[in-house]
Design goal:
single chain; 290 residues; mainly alpha; two-stranded antiparallel sheet; globular
Length: 290
């Protein structure tokens, strides 16, 4: 029983961490929390659903088309909603992302309705494989573990060795200095939103496979992913994943012991971390001198 709880906690925690990475990538570059991240993933999943149901395309082709849509969506929001803001404050940018959240939710409700739908995901949640006596893994769990590990490796290589990754790190540290060094900061922001949108869309599909598809299905996963990012540290991508895994384990064991209190675990984590260690468990806290 304990082993199964650990496996399930690790799996859902890895999914929280993966979605939290999408939030952290934008925050690392612009210090803005994108509260529309959940709805960006939600509408991308609805696009995949529409392609699968309406055109009967195979999942791999629907997935590729959806990723292209996610890229364009991220770039659209950054270019048309955030970039035109004159002398934006962090609070102002956050309000813009909240507006984008409401806009996307309303658009999906208008196009596809509020009825709950099943998302045909290729990795089954029900089909399990016994790896040890009393310890089972389903296809969804194995997919989450493999995908999270793969994305973490790719992100490490990207930020460590690619010119664009270095430009993103430089923009995070000092935007003005990055501009002086010839880095096109606006393009970096656009690419950051596109990358975040893609990762968020992939994670949203995994969440849809465990639940049902409707315009509000990503609200709770976003709050848990945000709690994971706060726990691990919004400026540390590995920390976000570790925070997600930690939250998944805490939530799973807490839900087993006191199921009625499980929904509040993420909010308690946010409050405790922001009170005791605002930078998160795995990120450094920087003090700016003015």
């Amino acid at each position: 029983m304990i082993g199964q709880l650990i496996i399930e906690g690790l799996a859902i925690g890895a999914c929280y961490g993966l979605f939290g990475v999408a939030v952290a990538i934008i925050y690392k570059t612009s210090e803005v929390v994108n509260f529309g991240q959940g709805e960006m993933g939600m509408i991308s999943t609805f696009i995949a659903y529409h392609i699968l149901i309406q055109y009967q395309f195979p999942f791999w082709l629907a997935f590729i088309i959806t990723m292209i849509f996610a890229i364009l969506l991220g770039m659209f929001i950054e270019f048309f909603l955030l970039r035109p803001a004159k002398d934006p404050t962090v609070l102002g940018l956050i309000i813009i992302t909240l507006g984008a959240e409401m806009m996307l939710m309303s658009l999906v409700g208008w196009k596809w309705g509020a009825e709950q739908k099943d998302f045909a995901f290729p990795l089954s949640v029900r089909d399990t494989h016994e790896i040890l006596p009393g310890l089972k893994l389903n296809e969804w769990t194995m997919g989450v573990f493999i995908l999270t590990a793969l994305i973490m490796v790719l992100l490490y290589l990207f930020f460590r060795y690619s010119n664009l990754g270095v430009a993103m790190r430089a923009t995070q540290q000092n935007q003005n200095a990055a501009k002086i060094m010839g880095i096109k900061v606006e393009r970096v922001f656009s690419f950051t939103w596109a990358m975040s949108s893609v990762i968020g869309a992939v994670a949203a599909m995994f969440f849809a496979a465990r639940s049902v598809l409707d315009p509000t299905y990503m609200m709770e996963p976003f709050m848990r992913a945000f709690a994971a990012a706060v726990l691990g540290g919004l400026t540390s991508i590995p920390g976000v994943v570790l925070g997600g895994i930690s939250l998944g384990l805490i939530e799973n064991f807490f839900g087993y012991a006191w199921p009625h209190w499980k929904p509040i675990v993420a909010f308690v984590v946010i409050i405790l971390v922001l009170t005791l260690k605002p930078s998160g468990l795995f990120a450094k806290h920087y003090v700016k001198k003015v």
